Amino acid sequence: MIKRFWRWFRTPSRIAVGTLLSLAFIAGIVFWGGFNTALEYTNTEQFCSDCHMNDVVPEYRMSSHYMNRSGVKAICSDCHVPHEFVDKWKRKIIASREVYAHITGKVDTKEKFEAARLAMAEREWARMKANDSAECRHCHKFDSMDYTQQKTVAEKMHRLAQIEGKTCIDCHKGIAHQLPNMHGIQSGLTE
């Protein structure tokens, strides 16, 4: 009996190979579908709110990215998760460190979060600076801006930023979240 099994195992029939390949293909599709569904769930506002309800969600809900006259809403992942496939994966891997910090109690209270806010903000600003504010530019492009519809100061600053090759995060820190205590730091601020 064992000898017969090993003979079959070393020289499987075409049906066995076909069945194995078919099952592997189906398992791959099920795995990919489930994994992609889980990945997309981590991009929802609900997922982010589960941990951030007491710190950044209230301030985000007071921003123009949440409620505005045009009704266009940006959710957390629109700004914090790249839209390109490979960059999205890299960001998700890095974000697992942030989830781990919350689970292990490093930033699980408002007080702990506030104590770490500047370091977290600086990391996010550096990421956005390095990718030329790609998430911002997914919706806001200099070439699509109607400068005549902007306030004089905004028009002047946007034209200057375009000429100088600046990126959104250079000037718009604090656009959707309260700024951390930046005592002694000089950089571009708010809207």
| Class inferred from helices and paired strands | mainly alpha
Beta fraction of the residues?
Answer: under 5%
Shape: elongated
Which range best describes the helical content: under 10%, 10-25%, 25-40%, 40-55%, 55-70% or over 70%? 55-70%
Tell me about the biggest sheet?
none
The helix-strand sequence is HHHHHHHHHH
N-to-C CA distance: 77 Å
The radius of gyration computed from the alpha-carbon positions, rounded to a whole number of angstroms, is 24 Å
List segments where confidence is low: pLDDT < 50 over at least 5 consecutive residues.
none
**Overall pLDDT metric:** 88
Count up the helices.
10
- By oligomeric state, this entry counts as single chain
Find the count of extended strands (DSSP E, 2+ residues). Answer: 0
Write the layout of secondary structure elements.
Layout: H1 2-10, H2 14-41, H3 45-52, H4 56-60, H5 76-80, H6 85-103, H7 110-130, H8 134-137, H9 152-164, H10 168-171
Write up this protein.
- There is one protein chain.
- The chain has 191 residues and is mostly helical.
- It is built from 10 helices and no strands.
In short, what is this structure?
The protein is mainly α. The chain has ten helices and no strands. The protein is 61% helix and 0% strand.
Descriptive keywords:
single chain; 191 residues; mainly alpha; 10 helices; elongated; heme binding
